[in-house]
């Protein structure tokens, strides 16, 4: 029971921990106080409890596929929120750069925009992480209450869950410090690229869930790369959590994943172009 | 004459579409009891979509999970859940209950069409 609970909790915590570490690194970079994490933790746990308690009811919706549809909807909402977040974050990055250099005329106009963008970004980060915790946390709560119904398993499950959560949080911390120290110079590019990959992973997962619900027509997989990297392996799990790795994707999934990647890159390019067109030389 | 043949073809096409809709998706029932899948092995034909109706007869929740089938779903205790699988190519696709994986194990066997 112990090893199993370590693995289950690690898998769920890892996804959230990696998302948190990237967002926290971006906050540090953008001179945003990192206290927002407390808000999302509290609201997220409450959301998870409400979702977990009502999972039976939700599952009955839409002729028995309510769980898939709800989870897919959450993933889609997270994708679009991340899309807006990435765009605003990039704009803020450009404004902060202007302010630092403070040689261009743009710097005078930058301050009000910066003060407007920072709280907006905090709001987006809280909503995104709250939704992620709600989804992942509900599963963890259901697991905990199911397994501990047998009193023999109570202590071993609890210890396993604590170990799993600790490993996940530690990996998150390690990742955060790598982002803000070793990769400090490339912090922005790496963090935004990771967020784009994470968001595309969400889109691909949402597609998978809608296929499972038979809302999107199922197809034979496009390829099978499980011999190269199995989703069961540790690296496979990590890649699944980080970039939505899928060893047997269908054509719809692959197309949506790619579109999900291209869209934010395209938006970033437009913001980049507009910003420098407005800079008087 | 040509028109008549075309009409016939069109109606037969409509009929075949209708038949497909009426035939519906085959349903397979699986029970979860004492943290076991019963039956633990199910056989389905190749390239066919199947609706799995999973009845959790235990008081505890279970999560149906399969890396090979790309499926993951919580089945609440004393409730049932629907999971669509397929179309699949011939082969074996293991699944397990993530909450009680020691006992809850099973597999989908996909047979080639004859």
General description of the model:
The complex is a heterodimer of chains A (281) and B (114). Chain A starts with a helix and ends with a helix. Chain A is built from nine helices and no strands. Chain A is mostly helical. With 114 residues, chain B is of the alpha+beta class. Chain B is 19% helix and 46% strand. Chain B contains one helix and nine strands; from the N terminus they run H-E-E-E-E-E-E-E-E-E. In chain B, the strands form two sheets. Chain B has a five-stranded mixed beta sheet, with no helix packed on it. In chain B, strands 2-1-4-7 form a four-stranded mixed beta sheet, with no helix packed on it. In chain B, a hairpin with a 4-residue loop joins strand 5 and strand 6. The termini of chain B are far apart. About 7% of the residues of chain B have low confidence. Chains A and B meet through helix 3, helix 5 and helix 7 of A and strand 6 and strand 7 of B.
* Low-confidence regions of chain A: none
Structural class of chain B: alpha+beta
Report the portion of residues of chain B in β strands: over 45%
Question: How many strands, what sense, and barrel or not for the largest sheet of chain A?
Answer: none
Strand content of chain A: under 5%
* Rg of chain A (CA only): 20 Å
How much is the average pLDDT of chain A?
A: 91
Identify the overall geometry of chain B. elongated
Largest contact between protein chains?
A-B, 32 and 36 residues
DSSP E strands of chain B, number = 9
Distance between the termini of chain B: 38 Å
How is the biggest beta sheet of chain B arranged? 5 strands, mixed
Shape of chain A: globular
């Amino acid at each position: 029971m112990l090893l199993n609970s370590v693995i289950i909790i690690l898998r769920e915590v890892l996804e959230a921990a990696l998302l948190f570490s990237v967002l926290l690194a971006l906050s540090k970079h953008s001179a945003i106080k990192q206290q927002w994490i407390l808000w999302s933790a509290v609201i997220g746990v409450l959301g998870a409890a409400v979702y977990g308690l009502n999972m039976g009811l939700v599952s009955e919706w839409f002729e028995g596929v309510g769980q898939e549809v709800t989870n897919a909807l959450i993933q889609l909402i997270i994708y679009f929120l991340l899309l807006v977040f990435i765009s605003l974050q990039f704009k803020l990055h450009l404004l902060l750069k202007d302010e630092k250099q403070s040689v261009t005329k743009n710097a005078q106009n930058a301050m009000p925009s910066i003060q407007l963008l920072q709280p907006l970004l905090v709001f987006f980060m809280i909503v995104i992480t709250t939704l992620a915790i709600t989804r992942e946390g509900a599963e963890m709560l259901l697991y905990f209450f199911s397994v501990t119904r047998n009193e023999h398993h109570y202590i071993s499950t609890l210890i396993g869950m604590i170990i799993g959560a600790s490993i996940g949080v530690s990996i998150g911390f390690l990742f955060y410090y790598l982002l803000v120290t070793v990769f400090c110079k490339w912090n922005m590019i790496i963090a935004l690229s990771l967020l784009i990959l994470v968001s595309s992973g969400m889109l691909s997962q949402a597609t998978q869930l809608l296929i499972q619900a038979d809302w999107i027509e199922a197809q034979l997989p496009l390829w099978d790369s499980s011999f190269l990297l199995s989703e069961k392996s540790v690296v496979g799990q990590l890649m699944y959590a980080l970039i939505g790795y899928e060893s047997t994707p269908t054509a719809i999934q692959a197309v949506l994943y790619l579109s999900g990647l291209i869209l934010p890159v395209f938006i970033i390019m437009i913001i980049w172009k507009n910003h420098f067109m407005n800079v008087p030389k | 004459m040509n028109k008549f043949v075309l009409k016939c073809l069109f109606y037969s096409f409509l009929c075949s579409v209708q038949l497909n809709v009426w035939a519906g998706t085959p349903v397979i029932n699986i029970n979860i009891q004492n943290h076991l899948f019963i039956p633990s092995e199910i056989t389905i034909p190749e390239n066919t979509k199947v609706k799995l109706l999973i009845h959790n007869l235990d008081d505890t929740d279970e999560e149906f999970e399969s890396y090979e089938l790309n499926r993951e779903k919580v089945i609440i205790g004393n409730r049932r859940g629907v999971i669509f699988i397929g179309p699949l190519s011939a082969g074996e696709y293991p699944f397990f209950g993530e909450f009680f994986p020691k006992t809850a194990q099973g597999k989908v066997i996909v047979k080639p069409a004859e």
